[in-house]
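[Meeting: bench + compute handoff]

Bench side (C.D.) handed over the final construct sequence. Compute side (W.E.) agreed to return the predicted structure before the next meeting so the bench team could plan truncations. Sequence as handed over:
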Amino acid sequence: DVQLVESGGGSVQVGGSLKLSCVHSGYRFGTVGMAWYRQAEGKEREMVSIIRSNRNIEYSDSVKGRFTASRDNQKKTVYLQLNDLRTEDTATYYCAKQKTEYPALTSDYSSRGQGTQVTVS
């Protein structure tokens, strides 16, 4: 089974920045569609960004212009740079392997990591 391990979360002040990382343990990472989700306490899961295997990336409207996703296929890692953080960005952030190589913002995942907490105050 694929394992996904996130890191990089923490507590920051409003306007601060963090960079999240997610390492994928499986092979053929280059043909895998990936995504970042978040879930705040008491709220539904929200798709933050999708990263297609061809490096085409989309963002939810709530983070567009502030967050930047990327992937390094040699390191089998995806990243999420969080800038200009707001209190409403507080959540557990998950990376996920999508079911398709070219996912849409509404696509579902096949596996996800354990999450990393981001707290903005």
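W.E. noted at the follow-up: The mean pLDDT is 95. C.D. will use this when planning the next construct.
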